[in-house]
Amino acid sequence: MDGIKLVNVSKFYTVEKESMKVLNGIDLNIPANKITVILGRSGCGKTTLLRLVSGLEEFDQGEILGTNSKRKAYVFQEDRLMPWLDVKKNITFGIHNKNIDNRKIDRIIETVGLKKFYSAYPRQLSGGMKQRVSIARAFAYDPDFIMMDEPFSALDFFTREQMQNELLKIHQTSKCSILFVTHSIDEALILGDKIVILEKGVIKSQYEIKEKSSTRDLLDDKFVKLKKQIIDDLKVI
Ligand SMILES: Nc1ncnc2c1ncn2[C@@H]1O[C@H](COP(=O)(O)OP(=O)(O)OP(=O)(O)O)[C@@H](O)[C@H]1O
């Protein structure tokens, strides 16, 4: 499976008859089977970039290559579950009945730690559990490419850490590319094979992390150094 490529992509919004360039000449390779993290301050254009890649929104200039052939899934900041469906039905929602692979779904439910909540309804779940269902739903769809827009930002520190580990675990067993938006530097360092710093609609810098996510120690000198570098990149000039 090939990756996705953005070539000189720009997006304008018109607000009060004034044209505002939200993304400006984005050139970006999103490699196959890896996690690419878009990191930036609030309002820098992260969600817009994700929406353009997903096809939810049109771009004004440039090209986005390699998306048409992909099976795509989206995980939002809020869980967007159907309150009238139980966990299993929420996860398989969107998959044709005859294509439901029950063994695979069970494995995914187990990986995200919801085995005992198979038949529970969203109202019976905590925020973290609901977000687990959203992630399981995305993977159950068997996608080539998942876009995640700050999916863990509403969770407390420990739940967030647990979810990051679960995401890495489930990503390892599935062959798919992930484009993950966050404003947390630590989250980017934990998850990203590639970290892209977005600043006022332009790519300011990009970093590739070769070390396997499972063995990363953010207190290690090289990660502390990289974090300082990223903080510098994010400082407004
Ligand atoms: N539909 C729209 N119409 C007009 N302006 C928009 C629209 N959507 C986004 N914008 C503007 O585009 C800019 C980037 O928004 P975007 O949501 O992509 O930022 P973001 O980096 O995801 O921010 P956050 O981290 O706060 O979610 C903002 O200035 C926002 O006001």
Key descriptive features of the protein:
7 helices, single chain, ATP hydrolysis activity, Rossmann fold, 237 residues, alpha/beta, binds adenosine-5'-triphosphate, 6-stranded mixed sheet, Aliphatic sulfonates import ATP-binding protein SsuB 1, 3-stranded antiparallel sheet, transport, globular
Q: What is the number of helices?
A: 7
CATH class of the domain at 1-71 and 179-237: Alpha Beta
**Proportion of β residues?**
25-35%
**Strand tally, please?**
9
Radius of gyration: 18 Å
Strand order of the biggest β-sheet: 5-6-7-3-8-9
Query: What are the low-pLDDT stretches, counting only 5+ consecutive residues below 50?
Result: none
What ligands does this structure carry?
adenosine-5'-triphosphate
Query: What is the level-2 CATH architecture name of the domain at 1-71 and 179-237?
Result: 3-Layer(aba) Sandwich
**Class per helix and strand makeup:** alpha/beta
Identify the CATH homologous superfamily of the domain at 1-71 and 179-237: P-loop containing nucleotide triphosphate hydrolases
GO molecular function, one term: ATP hydrolysis activity
Protein name: Aliphatic sulfonates import ATP-binding protein SsuB 1
Domain ABC transporter: 4-225
Pfam family, one: ABC_tran
Please specify the SSE layout and strand pairing:
Elements (H helix, E strand, L loop, with lengths): L3 E12 L2 E13 L4 E5 L6 H9 L6 E5 L6 E4 L11 H6 L9 H10 L15 H14 L4 E5 L7 H17 L3 E6 L2 H7 L2 E6 L2 E7 L12 H14 L3
Parallel strand pairs: 3-7, 3-8, 5-6, 6-7
Antiparallel strand pairs: 1-2, 1-4, 8-9
Bound molecules: adenosine-5'-triphosphate (ATP).
The site of adenosine-5'-triphosphate (ATP) has 12 residues, from strand 1 and helix 1.
